[in-house]
Amino acid sequence: MKKILLTGCLILSLTTVMAQNSSTEKKTDKQGYSYETVKNDKTGTRIYTLKNGLKVYLAQNTDEPRIQTYIPVRTGSNNDPADNTGLAHYLEHMVFKGTSKIGTQNWEVEKKLIAQISDLYEQHKAETNPEKKAAIYKQIDEVSQEASKYSVANEYDKLISSLGAKGTNAHTWLNETVYKNNIPSTELEKWMVIEKERFSELVLRLFHTELEAVYEEFNRAQDNDGRLLNYELMDALFPLTPYGQQTTIGKSEHLKNPSMVAIHNYFNTYYVPNNMAVVLVGDLDFDKTIKMVDQYFGTFKYKELPNKSTVVEKPMTTIVEREVKSPTAERLMMAWRTAGAGTKETRLATIIAEILSNQGDVGLIDTNINQKQSALGAGAYTSTFNDYGYFGMSISVKEGQTLEEGKSLLLTEVNKIKKGDFDEWMIKAIINNMKLDEMKNFESADGLATTMYGAFIQGRSWNEVVSEIDEYSKITKEDVVKFANEFFKDNFVIVYKRKGVNDKLVRVSNPKITPVQLNRDSQSQFYKDFQNLKSADLAPVFVDFKKEIQTKKVKNTTVSFIKNTTNSIARLNYIFNMGSDHDKKLALAVGMLDYFGTDKQSAEQIKKEFYKIGISYSVNVGTELSYITLSGLENNLPKGIELLENFIKNVKPDQEVYNTQVETILNNRANAKKRKESIMNALTNYAKFGKESRFRDILSEKQLKEMNVAELTNLIKGVNDYQHEIFFYGNDLNPIVASLEKHHNMAANKAIPTPKKYAEPITTNKVYFANYDMVQAEMTRVAKGEKYNPAIAGTVNVFNAYFGSGLSSIVFQEIRESKSLAYSARAFYGMAIDKNLSDYMQVSIGTQANKLPEAVDAINALLSEMPKIEKQFDNAKESSLKQMASSRIIKANIYFNQLNLKKLGIDYDIRKDIYKSIEDLTLKATDDFFNKEVKTKQYNTAIIGKKESLDFETLKKLGQIEEVTLDEIFNY
After folding, report:
1. Which parts of 127-169 fold into alpha helices (H)?
2. Using CA atoms, how far apart are residues 873 and 879, in angstroms rounded to an integer?
3. What is the pLDDT of residue 19?
4. Exposed, middle or buried: residue 408 (CB in 10 Å: 0-12, 13-18, 19+)?
5. String of b and e for 88-122 (b: at least 16 CB within 10 Å)?
6. Minimal CA–CA distance to 505: which of 248, 772, 228?
7. Residue 407: helix, strand or coil by DSSP?
8. Which of 186, 387, 799, 877 has the greatest number of beta carbons closer than 10 A?
9. What pLDDT, on the 0 to 100 scale, is given for residue 504?
10. Exposure on the CB side of residue 257, measured as CA atoms within 13 A
11. What is the share, in percent, of the chain residues with pLDDT greater than 70?
């Protein structure tokens, strides 16, 4: 009876919140623009179709005076020519290079040189003699150098950043290429001026340097274990179609032999209005916005798309086995092919994936593999494309466990689905949690806008999207079991990732590109005219914490409250000013909550109780701050408090379960020493803090194995006795306080223990190297700065934008745009998060190993003398001011922003001071900051790469080299 009541509680709440009887309605605004809406759609989305076929998605979100913009193009790597794979992706890169108006000083001269480069690339592609091919590339390099004299590098990025844009980027995938910006609402028309021009034509400016940067992205992909597995899986799963036969990044030989003619043909074919959309969500007026979109984008000419010959995958009738190798720990992936987006088959596969593993950790895999620690980790998921998709499972095995054993574990759980060996209530709970996720997603402008462009790419109506959960609601247990028996046969792909040498890595020579000219002081006529366009000023709004946060004392505990005026999702936090610095065992104890139960319920039963009512809980231990969090539907939060408090007070020790967890911890530690990302993180920490660091100060294997598990459960049971505060974000505080007074220790007054202090040693030009078999080399240089000083916050904000972060920064331009040494390069001055800690300057780059000498020289030059470009500085300053004026600290973030400021000894919204200091900031003052805080510092360097590929004479320029062992940097 209790289970029925709990489940019913969630269903009733969500039915009230999400009830829909959706249908598409066609309407016309007062200007005569026709649009579609969906009845009962709480997002209020409007979809227009202009006369040229352009789709326009509009919705309002007034959280802040900004607009999330996306321009999706319904094409991707699936449309790459078979002999030019990777084309869609590097076309995406080139769309940032400008047009005949943006990015040029003299188009009449520049266009002739670009045409010459194009002709040379056609010769280069056709030539088979390596020496002649190299000679042609040398010509390309020479003509490119000449052409660069007439270009203005990164002018698009300068234009868009002058608006106060954030998140400027793009991505390419199988069926999509999507261009992204988040802009102040007052800059919408200026954004349209830029984007209309950008998409009006394609100019392949500074092509050979950008293509080499794309190749560095290819190198990154080679060093990425996830891509290694995914490429093999897709190849086996889709043997006939581009889904499996063409990767988005492309083949090495195609990237090294591009055709500018083919790129132009692709752009002219697919970048047409009837294959594109404009997605805008934010603080906008519907009528004004659609008129503006029509004014700027309605001039693009409709063009018929080519008829594509349809290639259909043959049904899979056998098991296809593949194997890949790399230095990391062993794991496997397996997949069954499904139909595409919006189909019943995809929905059924998604429900099964959720029955196996879900957010509540109550799926069959969660319970029978992860909960029982039968492997290091396993899960199920679905991946959905336009025409196809797949149901996938993965598992990471323990030391001494075979991948074949892992496969057997997964198939055992699948067979339970086929037999109907799962609780029927799970389907309802899964669907209700889907509704919660949708509410959370649509709450943000970006979440809604992302869903919109996804609908466009997949060719689905908005009605289909918003009513899809209703379709899920029709699925029964009988449907699931029937489908599982028809779907899960010996017709899957399995990829074994074994530990070993990856003999498929492609290593190429350094092409020795002559750095192109950046012409930072130059501007196109378009840019000059654009600067004269006016937009309304936005006044910054700063938070009055005392006004926005209600506080009350309940017994000995301070309760803070911010009202949620958006929806019925609530969040409750217990905040403790203690963490692993106070007790090294705290994180270990909290981690055991996943596996321990109480005297009356198992861990599995406890998780199910939470999942049924749509409440999630988490416990996070930081170094000096820890949180216990409950979130979900507000009506069910009091019940969630009761469940959580009962769990904490009655948690039961289980030595056997703990011992198994220790083995898992030791397995994970061993695997971390095999992963490039983990090694680089440990190495950078070692370069920053040395041997006596927090990172290395861990419980030893001996301590873990000798631990009395009751010590951990006692720590959990006693946590609420320590002084803490409570924060609630929701609609009504009273029922929450009532529940807390009934179940929680509001009289907690136990003193917080004294934390361990960790030194911040001076950086002294040391180089720490770790050997790892990879194509690239990754390098991070770090220098300790001064203690936190709020007076420099404004300078730091603009310095980072100007010097080291973003597409138009000095570092990005020099390292990537001019010299083509890396896909990503970043320099960042990080201010301390505590008034007693120090700032740090950090520079990071990943580059082909044989380019490292040039990269080291380039970075050394930049850290020795900051280029001073007045116009570029003004642009960075203006961007910072506009970003701050249009950004708002809202909702629960108000409380957590205040919490962070308290650590800095500040009790007000410091952005007010930062804004004023930026207004008064000069390039000279920024250069003075650079000379004091960046140039004069000593840097320690962390570098990882294949030893045989690195030039150690070059590394000596950075300081004394020490090759460190993994035991040294991990301390185990």
Report:
1. 130-147, 155-161
2. 10
3. 39
4. exposed
5. bbbbbbbbbbbbbbbbbbebeebbebbebbbebbe
6. 228
7. helix
8. 799
9. 87
10. 16
11. 98
Closest by CA position to 676, among listed 946, 940, 331: 946
- C-alpha to C-alpha distance for 835 and 156, rounded to whole angstroms: 39
- Dihedral angle sign, alpha carbons of residues 795, 801, 803, 804: positive
Rounded CA-CA distance 282/550 in Å is 28
Closest to 825 measured CA to CA, from 217, 398, 234: 217
What CA–CA distance (Å, rounded) separates 713 from 716?
5
3-class DSSP state of 129: coil
How far apart, in whole angstroms, are the C-alpha atoms of residue 601 and residue 586?
Answer: 23
CA-to-CA dists, residue 564 to 18, 42, 198, 554, 873, angstroms: 17, 17, 40, 21, 40
Measuring CA to CA, which residue among 389, 394, 393 is closest to residue 346? 389
Computed on alpha carbons and rounded to an integer, the radius of gyration of the chain in Å comes to 29
| Per-residue pLDDT reduced to its tens digit, 170-186 | 999 999 999 999 999 99
Q: Which of 385, 116, 104, 97 is nearest to 214 (CA)?
A: 97
Q: How many Å apart are CA 180 and CA 453, to the nearest integer?
A: 11
- Residue 437 CA to residue 443 CA, distance in Å, equals 10
In Å, how far are 104, 108, 136, 163 from 526, measured between CA atoms? 9, 15, 34, 15
Q: Is 299 helix (H, G, I), strand (E, B) or coil?
A: coil
Is 0.90 topped by the overall pTM?
yes
Q: Which of 62, 89, 180, 50 is nearest to 449 (CA)?
A: 180
